[in-house]
Please model this.
Amino acid sequence: MARTANRNQLGLPPGPKGRPILGVALEGRRDPLGMLQRYAREYGDIVRLPVLRQSRILLNHPDWIEQVLVVQHAKFHKSVLMNRIIEPMLGQGLLLSEGEFWRRQRRLAQPAFHRARINEYAGAMAEIAEAHVRAWRDGDTRDVAQEMMALTLEIAVRTLFGTTLPGTAEQVGSAITFLMRYQLTRMRAPLRIPETWPTPKNRRARRESEMLDALVYRIISERQAQKTSESSGDLLSLLMDAMDEDGTQMTPRQLRDETMTLFLAGHETTAQMLSWTWYLLGDHPAAEARLHEELRGVLGGRPPEVADLARLPFLHAVMNESLRLYPPAYLLARTSIEPCEIGGYDFPAGSTFVMAQWVMHRDARFYDEPDAFRPERWLDGLAQRLPAGAYFPFGDGPRRCIGQGFALLEAAIVIGTLAQRFGMRLVAGHPVAPEPLVTLRPRHGLRMTLRARD
Ligand code: HEM
Model:
């Protein structure tokens, strides 16, 4: 879909004026998701948002999104916006590093994510999912968001790092939540108290970071202790082997950053995807019934295996629709490192572009009844018809999610296994609101009642 846009008189995209100095900063703080949708509707495909004397360019057309992520990707780096929030946690791991260093690390990690290798994890994923719900009983009320964090943590640590961290899930979950909120609040505050000042929040942030660091170093040292002369081929072994590569050793700090990145990126996003899926299924009994029927017909009660997945189209439709409505990565941002032309406008180096899955995935030009949960929409080739850039839960271009195949396999196995055992319904009156932290989370968790299936 080739498009051109007419320049306006100033050579700048249209957009709200906002308040003096602050621009739209306060609105963005109060309701970031609503604000992005509102301005996309009001101003169209490319919008200039003034924020604290700077501007961000919001791209609301698939073509412009593809220009940034794919066609002109070399002109962009990850934006300082997101980096400021997650760098303290992830350091220079795969998600945030750039240039030759990123390319090398990506090349190094890639073999651990090859399809054949990932498929080998399916058995362990199903086993862990079954064991996780062994203690679940008919009529129990559980925070399904917390349960999914614990489950995906266990799966990631066992499959990617070849180890276990018993009893740490709750601690890890609350540390991540706290640190995401802490960094976001700091980023949005007009005045920042230095992190070194011993305020209660700063002290807690330091404690939580140290706890996560200690866990990651424990994963690394356990793996090092187990290691035989032959690499076991898991991700951590691959990364550790690279320490000995012709003079380009990975320092312990780099190994820590990569492990932390994969530790967090490898379970947190998938946990959100699963949580939102249970919420949506609980809220749409007809879709839930159709899923159960498909699973019963194909699996008859046993957990899914890789070979079954092609025969579970409705399960995939449910996953696509969940990622459309509640994309765990709800927004991507890039900063131009050289001048570029996007959407008919010229931008200098240093311009910041925002591409919001939250907005594009609910755009009525591409989706009928965009706010409705209708998995069936994916059953008649919608994915092929959509223009690139209209649906990008895993990003696109060279920085596309390395864990996409892993996440989709894990989600299919977990949903396929658990949905045959339990139906879940939100507890009456439990509030549900998406909280846009680094990922899109259910702000109050998801208290759901379990109904055992026979
Ligand atoms: C539903 C689950 C997941 C979602 C929605 C998701 C989403 C994304 C997105 C949108 C990006 C691109 C970010 C950007 O362009 O700025 C990304 C990158 C990344 N993801 Fe995921 N992800 C998921 C699961 C995973 C898993 C399971 C892993 C690891 C096992 C993982 C590891 C990574 C890494 C390392 C990157 C950076 C890749 C690079 O820049 O080379 N993700 N993810």
About this structure: The chain has 18 helices and twelve strands.
